[in-house]
Amino acid sequence: MTKPVGVKLDDELQERLKTLGERMERSPHWLMKKAIAEFVDRAEEEEKERQLLQDRWIRYQETGESIPHDTVMKWLETWGTDKEDPCPTNRN
């Protein structure tokens, strides 16, 4: 189900939206809907990533488990080669 939502835009932005819509053969409404959907998708992904990092930080604080820097660097040196190593994991 969809329902209308009002958005207040200044004159300049409304004109830019109208001009872009004409060039793209799309309505300003279509452009706004697409822009909002893309923004929400990106924001949700960023929030998931932020939560994942927060969870990892909490786990590190609780356990002290980590992967040594030199192990990660050695692994990264194999990226893009025929002998790419698997991602190192914590074995503590």
Secondary structure layout plus pairing:
Blueprint: H1 11-24, H2 28-63, H3 69-76
Helix pairs in contact: 1-2
Order of helices and strands: HHH
Let me know the number of strands.
Answer: 0
Biggest pleated-sheet summary: none
User: Which class of secondary structure composition applies to the elements?
Assistant: mainly alpha
Instruction: Return Rg in Å.
Output: 23 Å
**Low-pLDDT windows of residues:** none
Q: Separation of termini?
A: 51 Å
Overall, the morphology is elongated
Mean pLDDT: 94
User: Fraction of residues in helices?
Assistant: 55-70%
Percentage beta strand:
under 5%
Q: Give the count of helical stretches.
A: 3
